[in-house]
Every structure is written in C-alpha cells, then in structure tokens.
Amino acid sequence: MLLPGVVLLQNGAPTSEQQVQAALLHAGADSILTGVRALERYGLRNLPCTDEVHVLVPSERSVADSGFVHIERSRRLPKPRARSGIPTAPVPRAVIDAARRTRDTDAVTAMMAESVQRGFCLPRALSDELEEGRRTGTESLRNTLLPILGGARSVAEADAWNLWQRSDLPECRWNVKIFDANGVYIAQPDGWCDELGFAWEIDSLGYHAGTDGFRNTLARNARYAAAGIVVLQTLPSRLRSEPAEVAAELRAALDSARSRLRPDVRVR
What we know:
Elements: H1 16-27, E1 32-34, H2 35-42, E2 53-58, E3 69-74, E4 81-83, E5 86-88, H3 91-100, H4 105-117, H5 123-132, H6 139-150, H7 155-165, E6 173-174, E7 178-180, E8 185-187, E9 191-193, E10 198-202, H8 205-208, H9 211-227, E11 230-234, H10 238-241, H11 243-258, E12 265-267
Helix pairs in contact: 2-3, 3-4, 3-5, 4-6, 5-6, 6-7
C-alpha cells in the first residue's frame, strides 16, 4: 500500500512515475502536480533534492498529507499542462512552489536561473507568481529572485550581482552581447559596465580548464584585447571567500578602464 486506498500491484520500491500517479490518485480529481516533480517533467536539471511529491488541490478538498505526498489546498489553481498524461503546473508556479519548500538558497537560485536561462519562463513571470501567491514568508525568496531579475543566470552570477550592488560601483548590465564598431561579435560577459567599456567574467576552473573551454577562453580574451576592453576574471569561489579583495580588484580595474578612452563597442 503506497498511500491510503492506493495499492501497487508489484514487488519492490515504486518508481518516481508510480509515486506521482499514486499521489494524484490520493489527491483526487482536479489535482495538479507542482514543485520539483513537475519541473522534472519539463526537463529542468538544477533542482533541489527531495523525495516529496507536491500536489495542488481545490481549497475545499478534504485530503491530507500522507507518506511522500504533500497536499496544498489552493484557491488559485493554475491551468494545468499535460506532461506525459499528468496534469502539471506551469513552470513559474512550479518553481515558486518548489522554492517555498526549499531551505537551500543556492538550490533555489540555481533552479530559478535555469528556468530563465533555458527559456522555460521569463524572470518577470517568476516575480509575478511570487507576488500573486502567499505573501507570508516570501521575503527571502524575493531577495533570492533579485539577481535573476537583474540578469544573473547562475549561482555564481547571483553572487557577483550581489557583490556589485553592495560595492557602490557604476551601473552594470548582465549577460549582454558586445559588438565592435563593424558589428562583429566580441563576447557576452557576465557583467558589463557600458559607461567605461569594462567586462567582468566569472570564470570557473571546471568550465574553462578543459581543452575546448581553455581554447574558447583564450579566444574570447583575445577579442577583448583587440577591442581595447578592460576585462577582469574572477573565480566564483572568491566571491564568497574574499569579497573585499574582489571588490578592491573591481575598483582598480574600473579605474584602469576610466583612464583610457572608451573603446568603440556597443551592446545589442
């Protein structure tokens, strides 16, 4: 017996799919899968670790949590989307529902960033969903979402965004594409100070140390140099372990960019 009134007619542990089906049977008609298990069905990968199956039901439904199932009664049920025959909440709702039940801020940031980076939803859709849902206990989620709204697309970029914001530095844009005067693509820096023609790259060893990654990084840096762009490269780990030192390096690099003529480059 997986859940009250739900029996699995086979030996062994149930599969993830069987758990989802059992949860919806337990929840009853018009129930909707949300949270992490819903996002798995859309193909998201950077998700919090959980054994829970989160299900939305109409507010008047009398059904309780049981075993691996979390039941959430809601007066604001979304229009479900069928994913392999399962009624599934839209991505923005599923992301915020999962975020509200996750304590790990990095896991929440990674999930939000991936949902935007891979085109599953717009940052504003996450913000709207957060504002329209429960208001209590959401202040930390609003703070977590701010870097995503600002253009960050990873945990490291969110750390960089937060460091920049609290360091009293010039305006910075995130993940914009830079072109030279002839319209030739240069790069898409993690951070870009257009006023000074300054690029900030958060370069992890894991991504850039491989043969292809190293070659691509060298080629990118060569394009920066040819265009006259001052660029600072920072390891993601230093954003937390040495924030003051990184901020000082940013100020020095910005001073260097300020001391020469701004290169003839533009954002598109």
